[in-house]
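Instructor's aside before we start: the two examples that follow are unrelated to each other. I chose them only because their records fit on one page, so don't look for a connection. First example below.
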Amino acid sequence: RIIASDGPAGDAPRAPPDAQAIQAALDRRGPGGMALTALIWSSVFRINERQVPRYREGRVFLAGDAAHVHSPAGAQGMNTGMQDAVNLAWKLALVCRGLARPALLDSYDAERRPVGSAVIAASGRLTKAALIESSAGRAVRDSLAHLLLGLGPVQRALVDTMTEVGIGYPHSPINGPARHAPRAVGSRMPPIDGETPYGAGDTPRFVLRSDEPPPPELLGRLGPLIDRAPRCTAGSGFIELVRPDGHLALAVQAGDWA
């Protein structure tokens, strides 16, 4: 993969690059000895960084590229769009089936718009780093990348960021309390081998994780919003409520069912 900037886009239309222009970029930026033998398709690509001010307007919801566009650096667009859809889908399902109040849908914008904004910023930084023009700047970039990418913590953080499994919703309006819990409320709960995935089934449901069975009256009050079979937490000492999308909704100490 060769990435090269052709300068600021400007307003004037620009013709797609021909084989000669691309070969010149290869000669200028490549390691040498690379020859372009066949140009199948060429077009002008302009990077846009845009985001709508609201993901919800009445009965209209925007997700994916309709809500945010940015540089393809890091290949974040697909994961971000799919997570938009997952976040919205379980909320729409519960509201449309009369199991949750319509106000639940307001949390879609509150949770996903900050994520889209962060992805736009991150992809923009990656693009700027990839397209540094000065030789001194490129040398510093390459040295730092070689040093940092060899560190385990940096590698893990990069994987969590690029795959977006590290995304959480700590400031969501639908979060409950998290009293002295080992995990931050709104954080993603990793799937557990052998367990049914969170939210699986025809109707998305919340899941209780506890070492003790919940009071029957609590299950009766929550009705179809919650999975009828609580899951064991292996002596964690906490009661955890997990959202259908696998994020922690609340956590309290064992016995604190109120």
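Example two begins here.
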Amino acid sequence: MSDERYSRQQDIVPAERIRQTQATVIGVGAIGRQVALQLAAIGVPWLQLVDFDTVEESNLASQGYLEKDLGRPKVEATAGLCRRINSALEIEVIPERFRRSSRTGNSIFCCVDQIHIRRQIWQATGSQAAFWTDGRMSAEVLRVLTACDYESRQHYPTTLFSTEEAYAGPCTAKTTIYCANIAAGLMLAQFTRHLRQLPVEPDIQLNLLACELNLAAGR
């Protein structure tokens, strides 16, 4: 594929640095699926997808899966679309739960929906990854946390509250595809800032309903 493919992003996504990226997306539900598709589009050469779940009917509207994907492992369905976006992409699919012993890339995109799993992933990979980001969402409220320098790595563990403290909203008001897309875009924006060696925002919180954006200092 010629360089023309990436010509419109070349001053935003450094070609040399992205060629060195091995991205791991853990959880390919609403946010993770969109993260994977965007990573494929911007030219990440190696992508690993980790998720044990299969596509259900409730995932079509909320997570953007296709009707023909019903019953398939989410990692397989997402990998198939990523390959259609970028045929040169090398993809590794792991259709099982994340394990502490799992080999991962140098850039971690944590897109799981349980706080204790986030803690497990952070403890296993946080100190090893050059870039680490976590996308969280409930209905029209999202939070994107990024850890890739000393201050942000100190801040992230403070966001890992206990499972009992987690807000449990009604199952019919948990996921919207547009909120997931925005969360994924913010995660990719932090990633490209990191590639450009620019400061990242450690903690972004956005309430779409109230049109409120908050940036935590992360100090």
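The chain is about 30% helix and 20% strand.
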